[in-house]
Amino acid sequence: MYDLGRFNYCAGSTCKKGQKTSLSWKLDPKESLSDYKIVVMCGEEVTSYHVHRNILAVGPRRSEYFVRLFQSDTEVTEHKTGKSSIQLEEPAACAFPLMLDYMYNQSENLESVLTTENAISMRFLASYFGVEALFDDVNKFIQKDLIYKTAPAYVTYADFHHDEKVLEAARALCADNVCNIEPAEMALIPLKCFRDIVCLYTLNHGGRDIMSSHIVAACQEHTDDVDQETLLDMTSIDKMPAIAPKDAMYLFHLSLKLSLPEISEDGSTLHERCIKAMAHNWLSIVLPDMVSNEDCTARKGYHDLSSDLKVKLLEAALCVAANLVDPDDVLSEYRQTFQ
């Protein structure tokens, strides 16, 4: 082995021996010889990124937005100042440095940084700045990640970014899996999107009364946004032909609050269907001392009803009870509660 000497260019200088630093927007702009600055404004928060034109506009991960900007023959302000100022909403602003990492590191694997929560923001940035490679890679992730468990979150994020393609797919997935998604998770979806999901729902995808639990959870989450038209649309008999007894009292009060029609020739109003559902839970109304605490939940709100409505509900409950049990058996059990 020949002694050919060591590299000593940095001898006596401030360079660290053996230091190898990849080009990055995270470096000090003097050290990286940054020749451009991107200022991202998000509300009152302003963040500056010291970048490089060749990274932004050259290579397989280039941005067509910056290609056009840097190659423009017109004297635009950005050319003179060496700076672009961009207004982004918070989710996109948080994802912006991830996009820069992707553009700087040609071997960057998005699988390690993409999540259900940021995928739509990254897809938005890829479209906004024209980064085709990023758009394709994000799409591959979403194709695998979009399942019924993540569908409600995708509906929310896609609606925020006005991503109609993902929104359409996620809404349909939610509608097909109403019986598999927890009402509390579905309720976090914006009400207008939830209303669309209800319209897509068919009875083939769940029980006859499964939708009532989802509608109650959504109405409780978006109390101030529920109006008469929305409630009528979501609770139509073709979408919610049956109401779970535990949901009936809440929907009954809501129908009264929003002045929904009370009577129809075919008994299809929400008001009438709620009474029918509560009547089938007749024990909690006629003999509340004989039922469990869980069954009594269906009775919550009963004391807030007017006397006329209580009588109406009691009559319906008695009619159901008369067809189901022997009156002597009911009285016998009722007497035992006082022994």
Can you offer a commentary on this structure?
The protein is mainly alpha-helical. It is 53% helix and 6% strand. It has 19 helices and three strands. Strands 2-1-3 form a three-stranded mixed beta sheet. β1 and β2 form a beta hairpin. α6 runs antiparallel to α7. The longest helix has 18 residues. The protein starts with 28 loop residues before the first helix and ends with a helix. The mean pLDDT is 84.
Helix and strand pattern = HEEHHHEHHHHHHHHHHHHHHH
> Which range best describes the helical content: under 10%, 10-25%, 25-40%, 40-55%, 55-70% or over 70%?
40-55%
Distance between the termini: 105 Å
Anisotropy-based shape: elongated
How many strands, which pairing sense, and closed or not: the largest β-sheet?
A: 3 strands, mixed
Strand order of the largest sheet: 2-1-3
Overall mean pLDDT: 84
The number of helical segments is 19
The gist of it:
The protein is mainly α and 339 residues long.
Protein topology:
Layout (H helix, E strand, L loop, with lengths): L28 H4 L3 E7 L2 E7 L1 H5 L6 H8 L5 H5 L1 E5 L2 H15 L14 H11 L2 H14 L5 H10 L3 H13 L6 H4 L4 H10 L9 H12 L6 H7 L10 H13 L12 H11 L1 H5 L6 H4 L10 H18 L2 H10 L3
Parallel strand pairs: 1-3
Antiparallel strand pairs: 1-2
Any key phrases for this structure?
mainly alpha, 19 helices, 3 strands, 53% helix
